[in-house]
Amino acid sequence: MDSYDVPESTPSASSRPEDYFVGATPLQKRLESIRKHTSFIPTPPRRKVPQCSQLQEDVDPQKVAFLLHKQWTLYSLTPLYKFSYSNLKEYSRLLNAFIVAEKQKGLAVEVGEDFNIKVIFSTLLGMKGTQRDPEAFLVQILSKSQLPSENREGKVLWTGWFCCIFGDSLLETVSEDFTCLPLFLANGAESNTAIIGTWFQKTFDCYFSPLTINAFNLSWMAAMWTACKVDHYVATTEFLWSVPCSPQSLDISYAIHPEDAKALWDSIHKTPGEVTQEEVDLFMDCLYSHFHRHFKIHLSATRLVRVSTSVASAHTDGKIKILCHKYLIGVLAYLTELAVFQIE
To answer: Which key words tag this protein in UniProt (predicted)?
Structure first.
């Protein structure tokens, strides 16, 4: 598996969801076995430009549209023990009861003043890189309609989804009792994310860990997403750097017209369909040089914390927003790679 320098999260005494998630389970023994049998290699000098997977033809367009243009918080997730796709309806009932019980105990579960909610588990057919990848699935908390005559669902209070895109390195080392969906994305109140994570941990002997994105991987994302051909640009290509200083940090935003960013990339790019480490470095160096020429500021002395393009935007704290359905699988494949490395 490719090696990345992904910072580890240090648990602290607070109510953040990561404090509920990070913790050893018996599955650690299995993961230790995975580490022993997985060959680690340095960061690859080249990667494929994200492509539209043929398997996306099976995806429900309405569900894909629902996943786009939302800000998701990223987590890595160890394999689920004894998870069964045939039991999704039962899981919905059990998780619903668990949330209500936690609310009744007075915990901060944001489902409103009453317990009139509904939990729904559903599959995301076709949301995979290869046929071997497990089926992705979606979990939603919805408010029920208060009118007895109406059979419609209310608003979506929280959403989370689990997926594995090109997760061969992990799939090859885990027994049939485990379902590998290493990438978890959540949208909604953090207190709900924490409670739902607790239920998954208790039910499937797994654990969650916040998935942050360091500057190195943000640079790769910037290059790969700039290399993608989009039908029309929906966002400016933008970079955000953080400058540590007292008494508070300073942020530097650098916006580029997407066509100019693509022209710069095309002038650097040599091998069709691939992105190399050398090209990523040169792409970022050109941006640094251009910025210094105009503003006399050395961006190389700062820290890249956010990248935004017409394909997607990502922040170092583990926030992602996917904008282009054409490259959904490609974006998720890279995030899966980071998640797999983190749990290994």
So the answer is: Centromere, Chromosome, Nucleus
Collect all residues with Cβ–Cβ distance below 8 Å to 183 and sequence separation of at least 6: 74, 75, 76, 77, 162, 163, 164, 165, 211, 332, 335, 336, 339
- Could you tell me the CA-to-CA distances from 85 to 82, 135, 138, 205, 270 in Å, in that order? 10, 9, 12, 16, 44
Structure tokens that stand for 110 in this block: 């944001």
pLDDT digit string, tens, across residues 294-309: 999 899 889 999 999 9
Report the phi/psi class of residue 53: left, alpha or beta, with left for phi > 0 and alpha for psi in -120 to 50.
beta
Q: How far apart are CA 75 and CA 318, in angstroms?
A: 8
Q: How many residues does the chain have?
A: 344
Mean pLDDT of the chain: 83
How sure is the predictor about 249, in pLDDT bands with cuts at 50, 70 and 90? confident
| 184 and 259 together in one domain | no
Instruction: Please tell me the total count of domains within the chain.
Output: 2
Task: Show the domain range for 65.
Answer: 17-212+334-343
CB 55 within 8 A of CB 126: yes
